[in-house]
Amino acid sequence: MEPSIDDVRAAAARIEPFVHRTPVCTSRSLDAWLGTRTFCKAEHLQRAGAFKFRGATNAVQLLSDDEAARGVATHSSGNHGAALALAARERGAEAFIIVPANASPPKRAAIEAYGAHVIECAPTLAAREAKLTEVVAETGAYVVHPYDDDRVIAGAGTATLELLDAIDRLDVIVTPVGGGGLASGTCVAAHGIDPRIRVIGAEPTGADDAARSLAAGHVVPQLAPDTVADGLRTSLSERTFGVLSNHLERIVTVPDTATVAAMRFVWERMKFVIEPSAAVAVAAAREAGLDGDRVGIILSGGNVDLDALPW
What we know:
single chain, alpha/beta, Rossmann fold, 2 domains, four-stranded parallel beta sheet, 13 helices
C-alpha cells in the first residue's frame, strides 16, 4: 500500500521545524523558452542543497529514541548521504554513510561536514550494499534507504504540498526520476490534492530504466547508466515502481545535450545554480509538448561540482 496524502501532510508538520519552505519562482524567459507558464519549486535552496533533506528528516524524526541511539546508516554517492547526515545531527544521532570511491568530492565533503562517519568502498552497487551490511552488523545502526521507504517518499512529497499551496492551479508537474522517491512523493501529494493534475517523469536517455520499466510492466534494473545527471543513475524499487505505475502520465527522456542546455539556461537567465538532475526536469518540460499549460517543475537540487561543469 502506497503512502497517502495524509502521510504527506503528517510529514510536513513533523519536518516543519527543520526544513526550509523553499520558494516557488517564475521567469518570463523560462516561460518563453518552454512555451508554458512555469512555476519552479526551488529545492536547490533546501538545506543540504536538495529535496532529499525532507525525506531523510521525516524518517529520522520517526525513529524511536532507542533506534536513534543506535545511529542511522545508508550508502550514497551524494545528496541522500548529506541529507541523512544533517538529519541525524539534528536528532543528535550518529550517521554512518557508505560512499563509493568515485563520489563527487564536493558531495563527499558535505557529508563529512555534517559530522557523519564516512566509510569508503569500491564504486559498485554490490560493494556498497556489502559494506552497508557490514557496518550495520558492527554498529546496529538503523538503515534509511534513499527512496525505498514510505517515510522518505512522504517527506519528498512535502515539496509538492508546498508548491500546490502556493499556486492555485496547475495542469502538470514535471519531476526528475532516479530511484523514484521524489517522483512517488510528487504523485501522492499531487493526486491527493487534485487528481486532474498530470504528473510527468523526467529521465536521462542514458539512464532510462524507469521508462523501460513502465513500458515492460515490471522493474527493469539499471545496469550501465551513462548520464551527466549523477543523481538519476539509480534503479526503481518495487515500491516506487508501484506508485509510478498508478500515477505517472508518462516519462519523457532527454539526452544529456538537452539537459546541459537547460542547466546552462537556468544558470544564465534565472541565476539558479541547479545540478544536472534538476535540469533534466526542465529539459523534459521543453520536450513534452506542454504549450500553454501551467506547469510546476521540481528543481530537485543544486549540489554541483564546480570543477567538473558539463560545459
